[in-house]
């Protein structure tokens, strides 16, 4: 009994034999083959749950694919000749994942109304200029990825995706605005708009009660909407590489203003003052999501904040702490570093690391502690101040 057939990378495989005898087959991998079509008798694979056809030259799928009643995952990544999908796709009642990223000639989608189990839909790097209004029928959809598409707008019906948790629109350079219905996505946690270079404004945000991650880096935003203060769950806000000149009282525990060179002195002062307040709140509460007790800020600047009590040049600092400092009143450390413009370029996603060692006069206890600031910029346009609070459990 064959349960899985893996033919990945068989680059000269141009056709398949009859499939009707593989009634127990659950997984079929045909990625990177030379197949230009799928035989119609694929309908006989009544137990098939996963079909992977990525990186193949096929131009279309047979309409019989809609008869794969057990299919859960369909992968068609980087099928660059694929221009459309058969309408029978909507008959796949059990389909949970549809991956079409990199199908650069895919210009339209078939009806979606029957895909009642679909949880993940990847449409990155396609030629779609619009999303069909019947996307509203995808009541189970939790992830929608539309990055690197030429679309100029989203349908207002997107607000009806009641289960949506993550929405990715990275580098949609024609996108100028989002529909107001976005605020109806009560379960949305992540909105990724980085690189949407023509996005000049945001819709109302007040209904996004579950919102945690907001990526606005590389957009054309010049100001933050006032109702951002309503986002009580916001933990991560990226604003680097934007023309923003001033900031409201911030919410969130990770604020990235790297390369925001238009921030004036007052705006930087506001960020610093707000950061101090947020650190105090976080330290006192000692609970912001039980596992997450860190606060990170990066912005243009070349001075260490005056409220930091211990500083020095170079990469090494030695200091002494008062007796009984590490008691139940201790709340952690604030680390700070100045990154000069002439500093070496960081590796992508490389961390800035502070490694600390603590021991008492009698040598009874030594604690080695490492804290990291993940600096996401490969290049900087001026000196930068990076500082972060760490309330790691190792101290408590």
From TrEMBL:
Species classification: Eukaryota, Viridiplantae, Streptophyta, Embryophyta, Tracheophyta
Keywords, alphabetical: Leucine-rich repeat, Repeat
Top-level taxon of origin: Eukaryota
InterPro entries: C-JID, Leu-rich_rpt, Leu-rich_rpt_typical-subtyp, LRR_dom_sf, LRR_domain-containing, LRR_R13L4/SHOC2-like
Pfam families the UniProt entry points to: C-JID (PF20160), LRR_14 (PF23598), LRR_8 (PF13855)
Domain Disease resistance R13L4/SHOC-2-like LRR: 5-103
Protein's recorded name: Uncharacterized protein
GO CC annotations, alphabetized: cytoplasm
Species: Hevea brasiliensis
Domain C-JID, chain residue ranges per copy: 299-365
């Amino acid at each position: 009994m064959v349960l899985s057939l893996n033919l990945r990378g068989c680059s000269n495989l141009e056709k398949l034999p009859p499939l009707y005898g593989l009634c127990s087959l659950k997984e079929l991998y045909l990625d990177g083959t030379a197949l230009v079509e799928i035989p119609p008798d694929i309908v006989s694979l009544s137990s098939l749950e996963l079909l992977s056809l990525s990186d193949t030259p096929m131009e279309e799928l047979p309409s019989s694919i809609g008869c794969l009643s057990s299919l859960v995952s369909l992968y068609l990544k980087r099928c660059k000749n694929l221009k459309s999908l058969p309408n029978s796709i909507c008959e796949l009642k059990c389909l949970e994942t549809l991956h079409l990223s990199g199908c650069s000639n895919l210009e339209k989608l078939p009806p979606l109304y029957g895909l009642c189990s679909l949880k993940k839909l990847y449409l990155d790097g396609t030629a779609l200029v619009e999303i069909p209004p019947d996307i509203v029928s995808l009541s189970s959809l939790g992830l929608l990825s539309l990055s690197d598409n030429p679309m100029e707008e989203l349908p207002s019906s997107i607000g009806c995706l009641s289960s949506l948790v993550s929405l990715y629109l990275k580098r949609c350079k024609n996108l100028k605005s989002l529909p107001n219905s976005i605020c109806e996505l009560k379960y949305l946690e992540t909105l990724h708009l980085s690189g949407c270079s023509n996005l000049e404004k945001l819709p109302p945000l007040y209904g996004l009660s579950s919102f945690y991650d907001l990526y606005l880096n590389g957009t054309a935003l010049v100001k933050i909407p006032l109702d951002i203060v309503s986002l009580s769950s916001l933990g991560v806000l990226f604003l680097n590489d934007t023309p923003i000149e001033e900031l409201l009282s911030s919410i969130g525990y990770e604020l990235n203003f790297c390369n925001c060179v238009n921030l004036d002195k007052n705006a930087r002062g506001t960020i610093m003052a707000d950061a101090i307040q947020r650190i105090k709140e976080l330290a006192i509460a000692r609970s912001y999501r039980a596992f997450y007790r860190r606060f990170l800020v990066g912005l243009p600047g070349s001075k260490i904040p005056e409220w930091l009590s211990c500083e020095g040049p170079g990469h090494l600092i030695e200091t002494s702490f008062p007796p009984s400092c590490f008691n139940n009143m201790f709340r952690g450390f604030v680390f700070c570093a100045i990154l000069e413009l002439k500093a070496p370029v960081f590796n992508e996603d490389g961390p800035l690391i502070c490694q600390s060692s603590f021991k008492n006069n009698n040598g009874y206890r030594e604690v080695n502690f490492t804290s990291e600031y993940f600096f996401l910029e490969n290049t900087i346009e001026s000196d930068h101040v990076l500082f972060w609070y760490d309330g790691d459990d190792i101290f408590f």
